[in-house]
Design brief:
This protein is mainly α and 209 residues long. The chain has 2 domains: 66 residues, Helix Hairpins, CATH 1.10.287.990; 105 residues, 3-Layer(bab) Sandwich (minor pseudopilin epsh fold), CATH 3.55.40. It is 47% helix and 11% strand. The chain contains 7 helices and 3 strands; from the N terminus they run H-H-H-H-E-E-E-H-H-H. Strands 2-1-3 form a 3-stranded antiparallel sheet, with helices on both faces. It starts with 23 loop residues before the first helix and ends with a helix. The structure holds manganese (II) ion. Manganese (II) ion binds next to helix 1. Manganese (II) ion (MN) binds next to helix 1. InterPro entries: Fe/Mn_Superoxide_Dismutase (IPR050265), Mn/Fe_SOD (IPR001189), Mn/Fe_SOD_C (IPR019832), Mn/Fe_SOD_N (IPR019831), Mn/Fe_SOD_N_sf (IPR036324), SOD_C_sf (IPR036314). It catalyses: 2 superoxide + 2 H(+) = H2O2 + O2. Belongs to the iron/manganese superoxide dismutase family.
Length: 209
């Protein structure tokens, strides 16, 4: 039986490199504690599922699990892992030359939202208005219309409201763990600052895939 566990990816930049928009302290904690936590939890759940599978039918073992609770928790932790993996990649330091919006993705945004400014407003409002913890996501739905379409989606927690058919091009984590030490309760200010470190080159690459 094949067993693949999840791994914490390295960041494509240093912990200090997104300053002053995201501090070294916040980025370090976010990556090494929070993201690592989702990876560890997902792997622990997989371990339990594998154990239950392997011992199924054995009379002397009682490893059967509560699939309702395990599946729900696995969905939360795996989605948390996947979103954070994308989140690290769609940011880049301001001296990287990757923060300038350009190319086909910008044309697609203009076609779908009217203008880049309008898109940013709608995306920021979506992020600001997440109740509790969650994400704002720009997703591409290829089956919709002749050329596909872009949509802004609000995800609660890591996995509520997410549609697997849609490819995530850009995502913003508005869990408090991602900004509270830097911005306190001012989520709007964090969102405004975050636009400075968006890696448009990577967003464009994901779109052209
Ligand atoms: Mn997070």
């Amino acid at each position: 039986m094949e067993k693949n566990s999840y791994k914490l990816p390295n960041l494509p930049y240093g912990y200090k490199d997104l300053e002053p928009y995201i501090s070294e302290e916040v980025l370090t904690l976010h990556h090494t504690k929070h993201h690592q936590g989702y990876v560890n939890a997902a792997n622990a759940l997989l371990e339990r599922i594998w154990n239950a599978r392997e011992s199924s039918g054995a009379q002397d073992k009682n490893t059967e699990i509560d699939y309702k609770s395990v599946s729900k928790s696995l969905s939360f932790n795996v989605a948390g892992h996947i979103l954070h993996e994308i989140f690290w990649k769609i940011m880049a330091p301001t001296n990287s030359g990757k923060n300038k919006p350009q190319g086909e993705i910008i044309k697609a945004i203009e076609n779908n939202f009217g203008s880049l400014e309008r898109f940013k407003t709608e995306f920021s409002e979506t992020a600001k208005s997440v109740e509790g913890s969650g994400w704002a996501v720009l997703a591409y739905h290829k089956e919709h219309g002749d050329n596909g379409s872009l949509a802004i989606i609000q995800i609660e927690k890591h996995n509520v409201n997410f549609y697997p058919e849609q490819k995530i091009l850009l995502c913003l984590d508005v869990w408090e763990h991602g900004y509270y030490l830097d911005y306190k309760n001012d989520r709007a200010k964090f969102i405004e600052s975050w636009w400075n470190v968006v890696n448009w080159e990577e967003v464009g690459r994901r779109f052209s895939e």
